[in-house]
């Protein structure tokens, strides 16, 4: 079978790897679609994604597909089942898993490297999807589950004002979740006019530039600020514009070499709570339910549908990644 590898030194290669049968409780899945994630780009650029990277590694972790075979210990899946994957393995036994926090599992590793014709996750990482949900949309399960975890942490109260930075793929999902949370007013901060338009289409009340949000922040209390970019400048501004008693969620993945700064005294007088969010503990089933409900628009977020081979050039140029979500078709089934 074919698989798309980051082999180190800014190089991506599609390699032939042997296909095998599933063992123990593994589910063999013919991958239909896999999203290209910002963390794949980080890995390609020689930084770490959510974990330390030692190439060669198969990229991709946001996949959906159809079960073709199950291991002898599988109880819940059969060939033909349509499924989405949670790529993040939790052993269920270590002290972190015992506390319900598999995102910190001592042996956590990726179990669904979706830039591959087949993946073999254990069944605890596999989620059935309803017939009405197409496989391309189902491949949004992982990014959506991460966004759900982030919003779980800050618990948006209905009627309050939320500012959100960045209409990339993750911001576009986050915006829709914030809308569903019952926020009273959502202001999206985005430099590109085209993406500000998209923000309005996906439920923002207002879409402004980073200069404009400064003024707005002085006029009204921003109760929540959610940053989905990860640039030093926007993270620092997100903390600076937050209002009194505000919660700030730094969701965008920052540069490990670039710590951010903020004025502690100002944050103190506003009694700010600053959150970060790591992965997706126990939120995949909810992500599937939301996608099945049709309340999350993914079509408007997709900027390109590319083959496994075409990803090499995309990782170099980021032509479509700058505009939205790149979806990789493996089997391309729906
Ligand atoms: Zn991802
Ligand atoms: Zn564990």
UniProtKB/TrEMBL annotation:
Kindly list any coiled-coil regions of this protein.
none
State the taxonomy lineage: Bacteria, Bacillati, Bacillota, Bacilli, Lactobacillales
Q: Which family does it belong to?
A: Belongs to the zinc-containing alcohol dehydrogenase family.
Under PROSITE patterns, the record lists: ADH_ZINC
* Protein's name in the database: Alcohol dehydrogenase
UniProt domain Enoyl reductase (ER): residue ranges: 8-328
**One GO MF term:** zinc ion binding
A Pfam family that this protein carries is ADH_N
For this UniProt record, give its keywords in alphabetical order, as a comma-separated list. Metal-binding, Oxidoreductase, Zinc
Q: Which Gene3D superfamilies match?
A: Medium-chain alcohol dehydrogenases, catalytic domain (3.90.180.10), NAD(P)-binding Rossmann-like Domain (3.40.50.720)
Q: Per its Swiss-Prot or TrEMBL entry, what cofactor is needed?
A: Zn(2+)
Q: From which domain of life does this come? A: Bacteria
Q: Which InterPro entries match?
A: ADH-like_C (IPR013149), ADH-like_N (IPR013154), ADH_Zn_CS (IPR002328), ER (IPR020843), GroES-like_sf (IPR011032), NAD(P)-bd_dom_sf (IPR036291), Zn_alcohol_dh (IPR050129)
